[in-house]
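User: Can you model how adenosine-5'-diphosphate sits in this protein?
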Amino acid sequence: MPPQLEVLDKVPWMIWTITPDGRCEFVNRFYLETTGLSADHCTAPPAVWKKSPRDLPPFLSGVHPDYRDRAASSFWDGVESGRGWTYEAPFRHADGAFHWHVRRAIPLHDSKGNLVRFVGTCADIQDFKVAQERLETAEERARLVVDRALDAIIVIDSDSTVLDWNEQAQDIFGWSRAQILGKQLADKIIPPEYRRAHKAGIKRFLTTGEGPLLNKRIEITGLHKEGHELQIELSIAPMKVGNRWTFSAFVRDLTESKRIAETLRETREELAWMSRLTAMGELSASIAHEIKQPLSAIISNVETSLYWLASSSPDIKKVSVITQLIGRDANRAIDIIGRIRSLINKTVSERVPLDMNALINDVLDLTGWELRKRQVSVKTELSSSLPMILGDRIQLQQVILNLILNGIEAMAPVEDRPRVLSVKSGPFKEGEIQVSFHDTGVGIDPASADQVFEAFFTTKPNGTGLGLSICRSIVEAHDGHISAMAGIPHGAVFQVNLPNGR
Ligand code: ADP
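Assistant: Here's the modeled complex, given as structure tokens:
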């Protein structure tokens, strides 16, 4: 065997030659070892195997049955046209397993340009195919995750060019994938006033590796294609692929949830106001009494004053003292009316520094007559070192009022022991204050201590079951906590914890 042919025979690469009429002339040893076919089988003359014009030659007998037709047409097209062929198909190897091959043949011509033979090779691309398939599956999975995600997913590069944009992003911002891929993100969905900050943020991250907005959820304003702004929740994750940074943004439209939260807040405030009106209604006799007191004092002082003035030599000094008393009582009446009005008015909630002790005393003043009428004595232990809190005056007064009225009602059936309402306030653990109301009423079943805060839970024939539920929502809106427990030895204890205003 000439050395060139020996090299061809032994090279670890499958090589063969085909005559212009499609007969396999030569297959190298590596081909035979790989496929497990014999040389005689591969090079058998057409008379043996060619029953119809396009039958597969035996050297291709290992092709997977599903690919026979394709292999046959690629082969015969190449032979008949004289141009050779390239195709991919799975072939059975000596161990019985199918491996993908890429098979290629080129024509060889003599000096006159006549076709002499085809020379072909084939490469085992099984590993490559498997890797490609895995890659395609992974890509498809990633695409599906992005497309099916409930959030909008937007990917940009370090120049802010949009690399990916899913359907939800289209729903939120109005731009289709085709319209926005390759475009500058800032120009499309960031309101003009934030664009500079966006660019600066990316630049800062690329130079320092830091970004205060990265990897956390933030609420921010976005821009819709139609030009209106929208509230969105955004989180941004930077990712380094190779040596390029990309940024993935996950976006949720908050418009609807903001609207619902706003409606809910309004409804809650409306309900709280109604409940305040109801409580004030219950207190009307007490309130009337509170106002009547200074008014009666005024009337009697006016009478005294007139009496003094009617004398032949009026004692101006005495009249002046009495007039001052009249002024004081009038102010007291105005004060009470002001307090009642503020509780009855609908107001927008606002946070101001408040002294809880003062709020408690105000409400005790309003309920004073009611407490006396129901023979309830009040014991107060209000800490003089109580830190201020930040809160809404009317809302917190409503909580105090509800708790005091509930205490009065719980003590109404009690005949065999004193009716005492103990109100305490004090700094609680670090950063908190606590206010507690302990009555000597019918008490609370420890098993239903949490239930009392549920809306519509009531044990009273005419109860609404809303008072405590409103108290809880007010306290929680102040980042506080309210709890109920059985009192020792009698009654119930309600504790309100609130963060102090520092
Ligand atoms: P309502 O007063 O309309 O029933 P609340 O939400 O204020 O609504 O109270 C719910 C229930 O909690 C009351 O019906 C009562 O059973 C219980 N409760 C509230 N305060 C006390 C208390 N101080 N002592 C015992 N039970 C109480």
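A couple of observations from the model: The first helix runs from residue 3 to 10. The chain has a mean pLDDT of 91.
User: Helpful, thanks.
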